[in-house]
Amino acid sequence: NALSETLFLDIDQKGNHFRQVYHKGIPEAPLAITGTSEITGTSIRFYPDLTIMETDAFSFDVLAHRFRELGYLNPALTIILREEETLREEVFHDEGGIRSFLLFVNENKRTIHDPLTFRKSFDNGSTFEISFQYQDTTDAETLLSYVNNIPTREGGTHVRGFRAALTRVVNRFIKDKNLNKGEEVRGEDIREGLSAIVSIKIPNPQFEGQTKAKLGSSWVSGAMETFLAEALEDAFEKQGTVARAIADKAILSAQAREAARKARELTKRKNVLEGSNLPGKLADCQENDPAKSELYIVEGDSAGGSAKQGRDRRFQAILPLKGKILNVEKSKGVEKFITHDEVRALITAVGCGLG
């Protein structure tokens, strides 16, 4: 309405036809009965205000995407999108609600179980709906969240409560069944491969920022976590196979994360050991073939000086090191060992690794 030059509102209700006209967001007159009607519904016609909008062209595909969302989020609603110029038309209606929405999102994707769908109505008029399913993939989660049909792309308290409940219940199942004896399963492991739709309808939602991309209503997080945790625990008891599949996937994700961490640490250690520069105190020899070369490790710079004077530089190399450089038995962790300057000098000079 605020972006329209003129807007016509027609309502058919209780046998009457009502009309109201707005100009630049301001009503020209109060809502008035203009006749009788045998149908029920609302019609809105508007003309964009081109002093605000850059164009009056509408994208059929953009509108279709949004109306498809609304059709799933409101299963009792039927939306007909028609482009009169091209006669292109599409109808959006699905009584399956967000479960059907999730199946649409995961179309042509391999999944490990059927969607788990939960719904609860509260005394204050609020409604929470959740549907989720796991893909047989290591991709990050795909989570679509809505508040009163408004997409919350940055999540918020409803998403926070959903994630907390899912993490708590899956970890409890893993612990109760004694499934994991290795790395701790984290929330990020449990959400790997997850596809979820979280839709809530609440009175007086509080959003963070002007774009309404993130819900800030504090009570929603606790209400969502409590409701979903109870519902999910009950579902896991009834569908043990599904619960086990989800738990096993989370454990594998945790193991993969730990393996990746160890691989990164190994790479870091390898990089430390494989420095291309020879130690500064090494008096290298001319021979490049290790089989024909000799390395003398001497204690201290003074001994190093004497050894250099008496060596055959063609095949004899001298490396002076400090005496008693490190007590490896008391040293905590291999990192301290391999990052010690004297040890690194020795490793680099010899050209060996760690093992």
Structural commentary:
By secondary structure, the chain is an alpha+beta fold. The protein has 3 domains: 89 residues, Heat Shock Protein 90 (2-Layer Sandwich); 168 residues, Ribosomal Protein S5, domain 2 (2-Layer Sandwich), CATH 3.30.230.10; 77 residues, Rossmann fold (3-Layer(aba) Sandwich). Strands 1, 2, 3, 4 and 5 form a 5-stranded antiparallel beta sheet that branches. Strands 8-9-12-10-11 form a 5-stranded mixed beta sheet, with helices on both faces. Strand 2 and strand 3 form a beta hairpin. Helix 1 packs across helix 2 and helix 3 packs across helix 6. The N and C termini lie far apart (72 Å). The model has no long low-confidence stretch (mean pLDDT 89).
Second CATH tier, the architecture of the largest domain:
2-Layer Sandwich
Largest β sheet strand count, sense and barrel closure: 5 strands, antiparallel
**What structural class is derived from the secondary structure elements?**
alpha+beta
Number of helices: 9
H/E element string? EEEEEHEEHEEEEHHEHHEHEHH
> Which descriptor suits the 3D outline?
elongated
Stretches where pLDDT is under 50 for at least 5 consecutive residues are none
Which CATH first-tier class of the largest domain would you pick? Alpha Beta
Overall structural domain count: 3
Radius of gyration: 34 Å
Q: Per DSSP, what share of the residues sits in E-state strands of 2 or more residues?
A: 15-25%
Measured between the Cα atoms of the first and last residue, the distance is 72 Å
Helix content: 25-40%
Number of strands: 14
CATH topology of the largest domain: Ribosomal Protein S5, domain 2
